């Protein structure tokens, strides 16, 4: 009887340990990005929720059964030191290149033509095999026409890049027609900034 | 004989359906750096060693060994780096602004990570969810360190 009691206390103890997740926890630290912008994170579970929104602010969650702890302020210098390798492993942001076209055509403006010629070198320097070419139009003309035009534009740029030695299999060509404008306009408005092909080099 | 054929057809259909749905998965990201031992396990449970410029798909689990690390760039420009002995699953990833199919759910199972948010956080922050076994992170930008012990 005594033994049985001891056993059940032991089982209860182990169960509590497991439930409290004694050996595990989550920590979240907020850092500024390259241009110094600091975002915000809400850390939440069924027990509660905590916002962190300052540079170096951190919260710890002991387990799913306890609420996130009140935020603490860490020294950015210490965080950078402690996680230097982790932060250095973050891939560089991909490069977005915007090329602009003459109205209704697949012909690039002179300036964009110059820019296009720099793209193969960029692809090589990033050792990229994952390049998106996305065509867009402005809202002159109907949707169907614009989808066709943006496809033609993206294809024209893809062909030019192939001509400059970029491997076809590294490129994905898509078109968004007039659906994804850089500058929002009313229908049938000509807007050079929307007549574009975006190249993303990852 | 006809019965057997019918049964075979039945099974053939059911085994072919999942096969085609796997192959239709789109790339969601790319491995940009690898140090040490890093494996990627697909949604169909096949594993392979990670390499630079390897494509990542929805459902992949990426795992680093001791003294290993990996850097992954996602199609919306978000990026994740893994420290040693770390494991994360890309539960959901959809980045199609035209059709408004947007979502990013990542499960940080164990280890240390840094994360930079991308266009999904800008376009639909409510659709981006970073999960750990202890909590869920709603991200409104930008750079984070997440450790799961």
| Average pLDDT taken over every residue of chain B | 88
* Contiguous helical run count of chain A: 6
Largest sheet of chain B: 12 strands, mixed
Q: How large is the share of residues in beta strands of chain A?
A: 15-25%
- State the end-to-end CA separation of chain A: 68 Å
Number of helices of chain B: 2
Beta-strand level of the residues of chain B, as a percent range?
over 45%
- Describe the largest sheet of chain A: 4 strands, mixed
Query: What value does the average pLDDT of chain A take?
Result: 90
Spatial ordering of strands, largest sheet of chain A: 6-9-7-8
Radius of gyration of chain A from the CA trace? 27 Å
Shape category of chain B: globular
Number of strands of chain A: 9
Structural class of chain B: alpha+beta
Number of strands of chain B: 12
Oligomeric state of the chains?
heterodimer
Q: What order do the helices and strands of chain A follow? A: HEEEEEHHEHHEHEE
Largest interface: A-B, 48 and 46 residues
């Amino acid at each position: 009887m005594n033994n049985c009691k001891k056993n059940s206390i032991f089982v209860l103890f182990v169960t509590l340990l497991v439930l409290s997740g004694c050996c595990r926890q989550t920590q979240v630290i907020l850092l500024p990005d390259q241009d110094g912008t600091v975002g915000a994170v809400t850390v939440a579970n069924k027990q509660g929720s905590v916002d962190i929104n300052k540079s170096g602010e951190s919260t710890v969650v002991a387990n799913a059964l306890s609420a996130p702890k009140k935020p603490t302020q860490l020294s950015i210098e210490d965080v950078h030191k402690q996680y230097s390798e982790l932060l250095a492993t973050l891939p560089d942001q991909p490069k977005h290149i915007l090329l602009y076209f003459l109205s209704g055509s697949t012909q690039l403006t002179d300036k964009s033509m110059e820019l296009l010629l720099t793209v193969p070198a960029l692809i090589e320097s990033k050792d990229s095999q994952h390049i998106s070419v996305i065509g867009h139009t402005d809202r002159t003309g109907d949707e169907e026409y614009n989808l066709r035009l943006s496809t033609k534009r993206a294809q024209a740029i893809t062909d030019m890049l192939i001509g400059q030695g970029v491997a076809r299999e590294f490129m994905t060509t898509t078109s968004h027609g007039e659906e994804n404008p850089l500058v929002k306009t009313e229908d049938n408005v000509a807007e050079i900034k929307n007549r574009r092909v975006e190249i993303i080099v990852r | 004989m006809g019965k057997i054929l019918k049964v075979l057809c039945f099974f053939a259909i059911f085994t072919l359906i999942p096969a085609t749905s796997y192959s239709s998965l789109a790339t969601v990201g790319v491995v940009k750096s690898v140090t040490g031992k890093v494996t990627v396990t697909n949604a169909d449970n096949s594993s392979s060693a990670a390499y630079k410029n390897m494509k990542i798909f929805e459902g992949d689990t990426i795992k680093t060994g001791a003294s290993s690390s990996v850097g992954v760039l996602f199609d919306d420009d978000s990026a994740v780096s893994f420290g040693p002995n770390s494991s994360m699953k890309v539960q959901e990833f959809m980045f199609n602004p035209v059709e408004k199919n947007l979502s990013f759910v990542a499960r940080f199972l164990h280890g240390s990570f840094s994360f930079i948010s991308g266009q999904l956080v800008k376009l639909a922050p409510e659709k981006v969810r970073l999960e750990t076994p202890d909590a869920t992170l709603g991200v409104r930008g930008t750079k984070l360190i997440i450790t799961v012990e």
